[in-house]
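Running low. Invent one:
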Amino acid sequence: MVVAVLQGSERSERMGDRAAKWVIAQLEARGHEAVLVDAGALDLPILNKMWKELKGSDAKEDAALKAKLQPLAELYARADGFAVVSGEYNHSVPPGLTNLIDYFLQEYFFRPSAIVCYSTTPFGGVRAAMQLRTLLPEVGLPTIPSLQPIASIGASLSEEGVALTQDLAEKSGKFFDEFDWYMKAFKLGRAAGVPY
């Protein structure tokens, strides 16, 4: 399966890199192609035009943004699922992640998403995950039932994305098993035909 791993924090001292590396390692260990989509590295402007409006544009002012978004459009067309790695900002979703998600729409349809949330506190970013439960299905990315919270991320994952706690190292398998199942089921469904 091809999985786009969306990492949404744009802060200079962000901890989400650890979570994204861990997610990629977990997916690759299962034989998936995991591709990082980093909002911080992309440095996208605040949404003005969606990809569907930009892709046919010949305007010079749209050229640089089109060049940034074209590889994402190609990746998303191949993707079987989306792993969304989110911190928690003011009990909600990081603005960079929302902005990244909002650039696309049809490219997400009939593909599942899995939420990996984190924070520096024991809550593990679950309040942001609840906001993502509203946002992701609205753009066509239904979420799998389970969440994977990472509490106290600085003590739970190394800078290289290696699990430092027994819970994270040993008890996350069911989450990825569930994501696998949904990706396979949705892929079969897309192959059989979608309702529109």
Summary: Strands lie at 2-7, 33-38, 81-86, 113-118, 143-150. The chain has a mean pLDDT of 95.
